[in-house]
């Protein structure tokens, strides 16, 4: 798959694409990332990409023409069309299902806005989807783009050290969309706290039961909305429901 990232600050992506376990996805081309700076196609002595907002008010707005010309460059290089995604407060909230969708796709063109945002005429003419990573504002779309790319990379074959690792991540359908359970490592006792005895027992059935119970406890306490979603989808067993009832 190929992701083209339109950003005024391509240098921000250099450490991200070359560090950590997900770098395997980018170096191998499993997730092929290309960076494009609208300033490279902007005209005039100053290669302006932003201007003051009509109607007055603080801040600057990214101009439509440099962005549109950048899409033309990308289309020529790609040789085929791709979905254009803008990171924006009005977008769909990024979650596991949305990440899985893009992980199964051929990629997209990611627009990283800056300043007060992007000229609405460009959005209306070229943007196919908008994505938000939460109810807060960042200085630009670069961090959301990295979040999407990282999440997509984790789902690619042969990227993580353990191929099944992501199946045990929070929100994964393999966990029925629940939160993951707590995890422990050496030493067996630290700061007066011991690892739960069941995890040292070697009894895989009991360990699996304990982990399921912990997933239900944590999710019920911190994300009850996920419990409701799992229940509505018929993912909870009678044993799950009995445990949840005992927590009330």
The CATH topology label of the largest domain is Alpha/beta knot
Strand residues, percent: 15-25%
Structural class: alpha/beta
Radius of gyration: 22 Å
Mean pLDDT: 95
What is the chains' assembly state? single chain
Description of the molecule:
There is one protein chain. With 248 residues, this protein is of the alpha/beta class. It folds into two domains: 2-154, Alpha/beta knot (3-Layer(aba) Sandwich); 170-246, Trp Operon Repressor, Chain A, CATH 1.10.1270.20. Helix content is 37%, strand content 16%. It contains nine helices and nine strands. The protein has helices spanning 13-18, 23-28, 64-78, 96-103, 120-126, 142-154, 204-222, 224-232, 238-246; strands at 2-6, 32-36, 50-52, 60-62, 84-93, 107-111, 129-132, 189-190, 193-194. It has a five-stranded parallel β-sheet, with helices on both faces. Strand 5 (84-93), helix 4 and strand 6 (107-111) form a beta-alpha-beta unit. Helix 3 (64-78) runs parallel beside helix 5 (120-126), helix 4 (96-103) packs across helix 6 (142-154) and helix 7 (204-222) crosses helix 8. The longest helix is centred in the C-terminal third of the chain and has 19 residues, at 204-222. The protein is elongated and about 70 Å long. The mean pLDDT is 95.
């Amino acid at each position: 798959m190929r992701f083209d990232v339109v950003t005024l600050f391509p240098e921000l992506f250099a450490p991200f694409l070359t560090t950590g376990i997900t770098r395997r996805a980018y170096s191998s081309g499993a997730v092929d990332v290309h960076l494009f700076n609208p300033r490279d196609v902007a005209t005039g002595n100053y290669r302006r990409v932003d201007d003051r907002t009509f109607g007055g008010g603080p801040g600057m707005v990214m101009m439509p023409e440099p962005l549109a010309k950048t899409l033309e460059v990308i289309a020529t290089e790609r040789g085929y069309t791709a979905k254009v995604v803008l990171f924006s407060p009005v977008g769909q909230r990024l979650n596991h299902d949305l990440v899985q969708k893009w992980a199964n796709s051929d990629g997209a063109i990611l627009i990283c806005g800056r300043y007060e945002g992007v000229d609405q005429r460009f959005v209306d003419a070229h943007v196919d989807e908008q994505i938000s990573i939460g109810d807060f504002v960042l200085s630009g779309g670069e961090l959301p783009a990295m979040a999407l790319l990282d999440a997509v990379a984790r789902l690619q074959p042969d990227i993580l050290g353990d191929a099944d690792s992501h199946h045990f991540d929070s929100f994964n359908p393999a966990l029925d969309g629940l939160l993951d359970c707590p995890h422990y490592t050496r030493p067996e006792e630290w700061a007066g706290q011991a690892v739960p005895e069941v995890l040292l027992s070697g009894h895989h059935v009991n360990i699996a039961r304990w982990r399921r119970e912990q997933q239900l406890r944590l999710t019920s306490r911190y994300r009850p909305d996920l419990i409701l979603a799992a229940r509505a989808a018929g993912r909870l067993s009678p044993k799950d429901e009995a445990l949840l009832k005992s927590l009330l």
